[in-house]
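Re-run requested by the PI after the first attempt was lost when the workstation crashed. Everything re-entered from the original request form. Ligand of interest: guanosine-5'-monophosphate.
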Amino acid sequence: MKRLEDKIREEGQALSEHVLKVDAFLNHQVDPVLMQDIGKAFAERFADLDIDRIVTLESSGIAPAMMTALEMNVPFVFARKRKSLTLQDDLVEADVYSFTKQETNRISLSRRFVKPGERILVIDDFLANGEAALGLTELVESAGATVAGIGIVIEKSFQPGREKLLARGYRVESLARISKLEAGHISFVEAVR
Ligand code: 5GP
């Protein structure tokens, strides 16, 4: 997605060869017009699928997932990283190791909002080692639903997440695919579209 790649080039910061900071438009400040375009791009790429619901992970997945849900006219739900007093009953849970925070979070989702037999589109902000996306697929499948596709805003293609998801048979669509991070330069995998 050209607009996203331009934004990453202009406002993204390679903190190291492994970590990209995009808190100017995705992880802290959020660019709503870009999110709207992201929602349209995901809706287009997954238009052939009959999606019942979108599932994402708080907090940075919420903005792109919500805009995609609006475009596809389906509900969306975000998995929680922390237990809430009001969210205790009938949960499905999975452990996710966070690449950026270097800690394990138990993520959870209420069975009230993902029903058996539903076809789910999983959306997340980043794909690195695939832990977060795999945790989300585990939640969806524990609830008896099916993962129809996985939509990623920024994929770091030099890390193994994509291969892991493909090896398990999931369809993955990433709007920006980064092949290399260097100080002052960010390279992308394929020609923009
Ligand atoms: P994974 O679980 O695939 O290893 O990593 C995905 C999760 O880690 C994302 O949900 C995202 O929050 C975070 N993450 C991984 N790599 C990066 C990165 O380079 N930059 C930022 N901002 N977040 C990242």
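Saved to the shared folder this time. The mean pLDDT is 94.
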